[in-house]
Structure prediction request, 183 residues.
Amino acid sequence: MRFSRLRLNGFKSFVDPTDLIIADGLTGVVGPNGCGKSNLLEALRWVMGENRPTAMRGGGMEDVIFAGAATRPARNFAEVSLVIDNTERLAPAGFNDNDMLEIVRRITRDAGSAYKVGAKDVRARDVQMLFADASTGAHSPALVRQGQISELINAKPKARRRILEEAAGISGLYQRRHEAELK
Ligand code: ATP
Ligand code: MG
Prediction:
Protein backbone atom coordinates (compact mmCIF):
# COMPACT_ATOMS: atom_id res chain seq x y z
CA MET A 1 0.00 0.00 0.00
CA ARG A 2 1.34 3.41 -0.90
CA PHE A 3 -0.04 6.81 0.09
CA SER A 4 -0.73 8.77 -3.06
CA ARG A 5 -2.84 11.74 -2.04
CA LEU A 6 -3.85 13.62 1.10
CA ARG A 7 -6.69 16.10 1.15
CA LEU A 8 -7.58 18.32 4.09
CA ASN A 9 -10.56 20.56 4.65
CA GLY A 10 -11.05 22.47 7.89
CA PHE A 11 -8.44 20.32 9.66
CA LYS A 12 -6.50 22.41 12.20
CA SER A 13 -4.75 25.27 10.38
CA PHE A 14 -5.80 23.91 6.94
CA VAL A 15 -9.08 25.82 6.82
CA ASP A 16 -9.26 25.92 3.01
CA PRO A 17 -9.36 22.68 1.02
CA THR A 18 -5.79 21.54 0.45
CA ASP A 19 -4.85 18.75 -1.93
CA LEU A 20 -1.40 17.16 -1.74
CA ILE A 21 -0.11 14.65 -4.24
CA ILE A 22 2.35 12.25 -2.62
CA ALA A 23 4.78 11.20 -5.34
CA ASP A 24 6.95 8.07 -5.40
CA GLY A 25 10.10 8.21 -3.31
CA LEU A 26 10.91 10.39 -0.36
CA THR A 27 8.70 13.38 0.43
CA GLY A 28 9.97 16.30 2.46
CA VAL A 29 7.78 18.95 4.08
CA VAL A 30 9.54 22.23 4.70
CA GLY A 31 8.31 25.59 5.97
CA PRO A 32 8.65 28.15 8.73
CA ASN A 33 7.69 27.43 12.35
CA GLY A 34 3.96 27.15 12.82
CA CYS A 35 3.12 26.72 9.12
CA GLY A 36 1.45 23.34 9.71
CA LYS A 37 4.08 20.65 9.07
CA SER A 38 3.20 18.68 12.20
CA ASN A 39 -0.51 19.21 11.49
CA LEU A 40 -0.02 17.33 8.20
CA LEU A 41 1.44 14.32 9.98
CA GLU A 42 -1.42 14.48 12.47
CA ALA A 43 -3.93 14.54 9.62
CA LEU A 44 -2.36 11.35 8.30
CA ARG A 45 -2.59 9.71 11.72
CA TRP A 46 -6.15 10.97 12.23
CA VAL A 47 -7.55 9.66 8.94
CA MET A 48 -6.06 6.24 9.82
CA GLY A 49 -8.17 6.15 12.97
CA GLU A 50 -6.23 7.92 15.73
CA ASN A 51 -8.60 8.42 18.63
CA ARG A 52 -6.38 9.85 21.36
CA PRO A 53 -6.75 13.65 21.52
CA THR A 54 -3.29 13.86 23.15
CA ALA A 55 -1.74 12.38 20.00
CA MET A 56 -3.36 15.29 18.15
CA ARG A 57 -1.99 17.82 20.67
CA GLY A 58 -5.56 18.60 21.72
CA GLY A 59 -7.79 18.31 24.76
CA GLY A 60 -10.74 16.82 22.89
CA MET A 61 -11.23 15.27 19.48
CA GLU A 62 -13.11 18.32 18.18
CA ASP A 63 -9.96 20.39 18.64
CA VAL A 64 -8.85 19.20 15.20
CA ILE A 65 -11.56 21.41 13.65
CA PHE A 66 -10.32 24.82 12.49
CA ALA A 67 -10.90 26.98 15.57
CA GLY A 68 -11.07 30.37 13.85
CA ALA A 69 -8.59 33.19 13.43
CA ALA A 70 -8.74 36.98 13.58
CA THR A 71 -10.08 37.17 10.03
CA ARG A 72 -11.81 33.77 9.69
CA PRO A 73 -14.68 32.27 11.67
CA ALA A 74 -14.35 28.76 13.13
CA ARG A 75 -15.52 25.81 11.03
CA ASN A 76 -18.11 23.23 12.02
CA PHE A 77 -16.40 20.22 10.56
CA ALA A 78 -13.03 18.86 9.56
CA GLU A 79 -12.43 16.31 6.85
CA VAL A 80 -9.33 14.43 5.76
CA SER A 81 -9.13 12.10 2.79
CA LEU A 82 -6.28 9.70 2.12
CA VAL A 83 -5.94 7.97 -1.23
CA ILE A 84 -3.95 4.77 -1.24
CA ASP A 85 -2.47 2.98 -4.20
CA ASN A 86 -3.72 -0.55 -3.73
CA THR A 87 -2.65 -2.06 -7.06
CA GLU A 88 -1.01 -4.87 -5.09
CA ARG A 89 -4.37 -5.67 -3.45
CA LEU A 90 -2.99 -5.72 0.07
CA ALA A 91 -6.12 -4.32 1.70
CA PRO A 92 -8.34 -6.69 3.68
CA ALA A 93 -11.13 -8.60 1.95
CA GLY A 94 -13.96 -6.37 0.81
CA PHE A 95 -11.71 -3.40 0.05
CA ASN A 96 -9.82 -4.77 -2.93
CA ASP A 97 -12.13 -3.85 -5.80
CA ASN A 98 -10.14 -0.90 -7.10
CA ASP A 99 -6.53 0.13 -7.72
CA MET A 100 -7.14 3.26 -5.65
CA LEU A 101 -8.70 3.23 -2.22
CA GLU A 102 -10.02 6.42 -0.66
CA ILE A 103 -10.44 6.68 3.09
CA VAL A 104 -12.36 9.67 4.41
CA ARG A 105 -12.82 10.73 8.01
CA ARG A 106 -15.07 13.61 8.90
CA ILE A 107 -15.79 15.10 12.30
CA THR A 108 -18.69 17.45 12.92
CA ARG A 109 -19.09 19.48 16.11
CA ASP A 110 -21.35 17.62 18.55
CA ALA A 111 -21.77 14.70 16.13
CA GLY A 112 -18.42 12.91 16.34
CA SER A 113 -16.51 11.15 13.58
CA ALA A 114 -17.74 9.26 10.53
CA TYR A 115 -15.59 7.16 8.20
CA LYS A 116 -15.93 6.05 4.60
CA VAL A 117 -13.86 3.70 2.51
CA GLY A 118 -14.73 4.28 -1.12
CA ALA A 119 -18.49 4.79 -1.10
CA LYS A 120 -19.08 2.58 1.95
CA ASP A 121 -19.78 3.88 5.46
CA VAL A 122 -17.46 2.02 7.83
CA ARG A 123 -16.52 2.00 11.51
CA ALA A 124 -13.29 3.37 13.01
CA ARG A 125 -12.32 -0.24 13.67
CA ASP A 126 -12.60 -1.13 9.96
CA VAL A 127 -10.21 1.68 9.07
CA GLN A 128 -7.77 0.69 11.82
CA MET A 129 -7.86 -2.93 10.61
CA LEU A 130 -7.26 -1.83 7.05
CA PHE A 131 -3.81 -0.60 8.08
CA ALA A 132 -3.07 -3.16 10.78
CA ASP A 133 -1.32 -5.65 8.50
CA ALA A 134 0.45 -3.09 6.37
CA SER A 135 2.92 -2.01 9.10
CA THR A 136 1.36 1.41 9.05
CA GLY A 137 -1.60 3.04 10.71
CA ALA A 138 -2.16 5.69 13.35
CA HIS A 139 -0.05 3.94 16.00
CA SER A 140 2.72 2.79 13.73
CA PRO A 141 6.25 3.41 15.02
CA ALA A 142 6.94 4.60 11.46
CA LEU A 143 5.26 7.87 12.42
CA VAL A 144 7.60 9.69 14.76
CA ARG A 145 6.15 12.70 16.51
CA GLN A 146 8.18 15.90 16.91
CA GLY A 147 10.19 15.69 20.13
CA GLN A 148 9.77 11.92 20.41
CA ILE A 149 13.44 11.15 19.73
CA SER A 150 14.65 13.48 22.49
CA GLU A 151 11.93 12.06 24.78
CA LEU A 152 13.36 8.60 24.12
CA ILE A 153 16.92 9.71 24.84
CA ASN A 154 16.00 11.59 28.02
CA ALA A 155 13.50 9.04 29.36
CA LYS A 156 14.10 7.05 32.56
CA PRO A 157 14.82 3.35 31.83
CA LYS A 158 11.29 2.21 32.71
CA ALA A 159 9.63 4.83 30.49
CA ARG A 160 12.11 4.11 27.70
CA ARG A 161 11.25 0.43 27.88
CA ARG A 162 7.55 1.31 27.53
CA ILE A 163 8.26 3.36 24.38
CA LEU A 164 10.36 0.55 22.88
CA GLU A 165 7.68 -2.02 23.71
CA GLU A 166 5.13 0.15 21.98
CA ALA A 167 7.40 0.37 18.93
CA ALA A 168 7.89 -3.41 18.96
CA GLY A 169 4.12 -3.87 19.11
CA ILE A 170 4.21 -5.90 22.32
CA SER A 171 2.68 -3.38 24.73
CA GLY A 172 -0.71 -5.06 24.19
CA LEU A 173 0.77 -8.42 25.25
CA TYR A 174 2.22 -6.84 28.37
CA GLN A 175 -1.17 -5.35 29.21
CA ARG A 176 -2.89 -8.73 28.75
CA ARG A 177 -0.30 -10.45 30.97
CA HIS A 178 -0.83 -7.80 33.64
CA GLU A 179 -4.61 -8.40 33.49
CA ALA A 180 -4.07 -12.16 33.72
CA GLU A 181 -1.85 -11.74 36.79
CA LEU A 182 -4.53 -9.69 38.55
CA LYS A 183 -7.11 -12.44 38.11
P1 ATP B 1 7.29 23.82 13.95
O1 ATP B 1 8.28 24.09 12.86
O2 ATP B 1 7.39 24.83 15.05
O3 ATP B 1 7.28 22.40 14.43
P2 ATP B 1 4.91 23.23 12.38
O4 ATP B 1 5.11 23.61 10.94
O5 ATP B 1 5.03 21.81 12.75
O6 ATP B 1 5.84 24.15 13.31
P3 ATP B 1 2.25 23.01 13.37
O7 ATP B 1 2.52 22.67 14.79
O8 ATP B 1 1.84 21.92 12.46
O9 ATP B 1 3.48 23.81 12.79
O10 ATP B 1 1.12 24.14 13.28
C1 ATP B 1 0.82 24.94 14.33
C2 ATP B 1 -0.22 25.95 13.88
O11 ATP B 1 -1.48 25.31 13.71
C3 ATP B 1 -0.38 26.99 14.96
O12 ATP B 1 -0.36 28.26 14.33
C4 ATP B 1 -1.73 26.70 15.54
O13 ATP B 1 -2.41 27.86 15.94
C5 ATP B 1 -2.45 26.09 14.35
N1 ATP B 1 -3.57 25.25 14.79
C6 ATP B 1 -3.55 24.09 15.49
N2 ATP B 1 -4.78 23.64 15.73
C7 ATP B 1 -5.62 24.53 15.15
C8 ATP B 1 -7.04 24.63 15.05
N3 ATP B 1 -7.86 23.71 15.57
N4 ATP B 1 -7.55 25.69 14.39
C9 ATP B 1 -6.74 26.63 13.85
N5 ATP B 1 -5.41 26.60 13.90
C10 ATP B 1 -4.85 25.56 14.54
MG1 MG C 1 6.17 20.76 14.04
Q: What stands out?
A: The first strand starts at residue 2 and ends at 9.
